[in-house]
Design a protein that fits this description.
The complex is a heterodimer of chains A (370) and B (265). Chain A has 370 residues and is of the alpha/beta class. Chain A has 11 helices and 16 strands. Chain A folds into 2 domains: 234 residues, Thiamin diphosphate (ThDP)-binding fold, Pyr/PP domains (Rossmann fold, 3-Layer(aba) Sandwich), CATH 3.40.50; 116 residues, Rossmann fold. The N and C termini of chain A lie far apart (45 Å). With 265 residues, chain B is an alpha/beta fold. Chain B has one domain: Thiamin diphosphate (ThDP)-binding fold, Pyr/PP domains (Rossmann fold, 3-Layer(aba) Sandwich), CATH 3.40.50. Chain B is 39% helix and 16% strand. Chain B has an 8-stranded mixed beta sheet with strand order 2-1-3-4-6-5-7-8, with helices on both faces. In chain B, helix 3 runs parallel beside helix 5. The chains are: A alpha/beta (370), B alpha/beta (265). Chains A and B meet through strand 3, helix 3, helix 5 and strand 9 of A and strand 1, strand 2, helix 3 and helix 5 of B.
Chain lengths: 370, 265
């Protein structure tokens, strides 16, 4: 079915098709439209879910965990301060091995109040044991949400998955959307540790030093195992629905001398920048990083690398840039741009690439001209 | 309490003494599933669990078992939310009037004049009236109980679980190390709390108050408050003014209950 949708409504439509038993909902700009749309589905009886209008995001994640441990599918959505408010419980969801699926509409953190796109919110969740995928189109928001349920609930994973979409730049824009009949693409959930009153067990009780590290390792083992599940799920998705996804979305990278890496909608602008640079004779390519956890293996050999971060770790650097540096032998040009919704055009990105200064960090709008 | 609830029940436990006494992984002392949850989240976690069980058509009792810190202080937002939403669960708060796991710091449940490690001179504020706060949510059933009267508690748990929607039982739990008295005196101290009127046993069914058990007599003729305070080290050396204020508070509370039950208020 071809339709037109916002990023938020595309997520909601995928959730409707995934049929979670419980959705916990709390409003926050720019995510609110997702939980509003789900409420519409529930009220219209198009979706038979228990919709819990919780009183905070901390409770939203707690409710998803409490529901999830009975073995049912759960979903919630948040943004920015809401994500940080549930931070204790995002750790808990991963530790308790509850495959919650959550959409996070990336937004800056206060003060001052800023409702526009930034990735710092999700970056602060990077060590919690959640899988993280960043999307760049309405179609991809829909597709990634469908795949998120299948990946999270896979027996080799059983970890929560966060779908990240840029506030307003994607959450509120209209694009064409192909919504499919999903059939059995998302199999029923079988949680091996689901509560069973006939086999009473204790969950999350006191765990001493001789045992705790084993549970931590178990999270990492599943995070590693999730790589294969992600690849299989994306391949199966492509087979069924004809849309291909990888760890990254590569654009004209094969013969590129310089590659620009970014997350989310910046990656689409970067493709336009690549086209215009190619006309000037600069062999540029764009590698939009889709999966941030688990972190992808990147082929950057022998190329100049420009990384654009719409986030920052104070006293350290752009999180994507420094992560790439940590995992690859590269000398890169780190650009910090787009914080709090700062406008970054493809011309700006072409400038970053054209005038790159390897080994340096450049704050767009602060450091002067490139 | 678990006997009254039966085997088709799940306990939801935030950080509290029960986190410790249930045993260390991989063992558990409980005969029903126990789900340990984040400190502030007991009622919210139970909301999710209850919704999930009901979505599967299961009637499993979802029972929160939380201390005073996890109920009156850090968990009050989730508690209020879950009650406002009509969550089908039973919330039991066992109240030893301080943060016990961490070594007895004041909580919203600590009474005026009681010494804790963070109120070494005695608490200067009243105990928070969580029952009135819960009552404001108009649950179908709420009650108080005291560990010194286990049969009363048993009956109230049984009764609470017959209601649909949120129910609440607030249990006073005397605590030898925290209240600084000899362990053998727990039942006696608990009974004195009730007989002195410091703790009133009652039920509230759809808002209607019924004073229960020994509180019926105590509300008319309480024993002197000093008899309850004297065995407890936490009230040792309580200053005259605090004692007087506490007495007035107890008098006022008992009068209020008596009037409400008689339909005078």
């Amino acid at each position: 079915m071809l339709t037109v949708s916002t990023g938020n409504k595309a997520v909601a439509m995928a959730v409707k098709q995934a049929k979670p038993a419980v959705v916990a909902a709390y409003p926050i700009t720019p995510q609110t439209e997702i939980v509003e749309q789900i409420a519409e589905y529930v009220t219209a009886k198009e979706l038979a879910t228990r919709y819990i209008a919780v009183e905070s995001e901390h409770s939203a994640m707690a409710a998803c965990i409490g529901a999830g441990v009975t073995g049912v599918r759960t979903f919630t959505a948040t943004s920015s301060h809401g994500l940080l408010y549930m931070h204790e419980m995002t750790n808990w969801a991963a530790g308790a091995r509850i495959p919650v699926v959550m959409a996070n509409v990336n937004r800056a953190l206060g003060p001052g109040w800023n409702i526009w796109a930034e990735h710092t919110d999700a970056m602060q969740e990077r060590d919690t044991g959640w899988l993280q995928v960043y999307v760049a189109s309405v179609q991809e928001a829909y597709d990634a949400t469908l795949m998120a349920f299948r990946i999270a609930e896979h027996n080799d994973v059983l970890l929560p998955v966060m779908i990240n979409l840029d506030g307003f730049l994607l959450s509120h824009i209209m694009q064409p959307l192909v919504a499919d009949k999903i059939g059995d693409f998302i199999p029923p959930l079988h949680l091996p540790h689901a509560i069973d009153v006939t086999k009473p067990r204790g969950y999350g009780g006191l765990t001493g030093p001789d045992e705790h590290f084993k549970f931590r390792w178990d999270i990492e083992r599943s995070m590693r195992d999730s790589r294969k599940v992600i690849e299989e799920t994306q391949a199966e998705f492509n087979r069924r629905f004809g849309r291909e996804y990888g760890w990254t979305e590569d654009y004209r990278c094969e013969d590129a001398d310089v590659v620009v890496l970014s997350l989310g909608t910046l990656g689409k602008e970067a493709e336009m920048a690549v086209d215009s640079l190619r006309k000037e004779g600069i062999r540029a390519g764009s590698m939009r990083v889709r999966w941030f956890r688990p972190f992808p293996k990147l082929d950057l050999n022998g190329r100049d690398v420009v990384v654009i971060d719409r986030d920052y770790s104070f006293g350290f650097g752009g999180v994507l840039a420094r992560s790439i540096e940590a995992k690859n032998r590269v000398d890169l040009f780190s650009v910090i741009a787009g914080l709090g919704g700062q406008e970054v055009t493809y011309d700006d990105i072409a400038g970053f690439i054209r005038n790159r200064r390897m080994g340096e960090e450049f704050w767009f709008g602060v450091s002067g001209d490139v | 309490m678990l006997k009254a609830a039966g085997p088709d029940s799940v306990l939801v436990v935030p950080a509290c003494c029960t986190s410790v006494i249930q045993g260390i992984y991989p063992n558990t002392a409980m005969n029903i599933p126990v789900y340990n949850v984040g400190f502030a989240t007991a009622a919210a976690s139970a909301s999710g669990m209850s919704a999930a069980f009901r979505s599967m058509g299961k009637k499993t009792n979802v029972i929160v078992y939380a201390g005073d810190g996890g109920t009156l202080d850090i968990g009050i937002q989730a508690l209020s939310g879950a009650f406002e939403r009509g969550t089908d669960f039973l919330y039991i708060c066992y109240d030893n009037e301080a943060y016990g796991n961490t070594g007895m710091q004041r909580s919203g449940g600590t009474p005026l004049g009681a010494k804790t490690t963070t109120t070494p001179g005695g608490k200067t504020d009243f105990k928070k009236d969580i029952d009135a706060i819960v009552a404001a949510h108009e649950p179908p059933y709420q009650a108080t109980a005291c560990a010194a009267y286990p049969q009363d508690l048993f009956k109230k748990v049984q009764k609470a679980l017959t209601f649909r929607g949120p129910t609440f039982i607030h249990v006073l739990a005397p605590c030898p190390p925290g209240w600084r008295y000899e362990t053998g005196k727990s039942v006696e101290v608990g009974k004195l709390a009730v007989k002195s009127g410091m703790w009133v046993l009652y039920e509230r069914e759809y808002g209607k108050l019924t004073i229960t058990g020994p509180s019926k007599a105590a509300i008319k003729k309480p024993v002197p408050l000093e008899e309850y305070l004297a065995p407890q080290g936490r009230f040792k050396g309580i200053d005259r003014k605090a004692l007087e204020t506490l007495k007035q508070r107890v008098d006022r509370t008992l009068k209020r209950f008596a009037q409400e039950e008689a339909g005078v208020c």
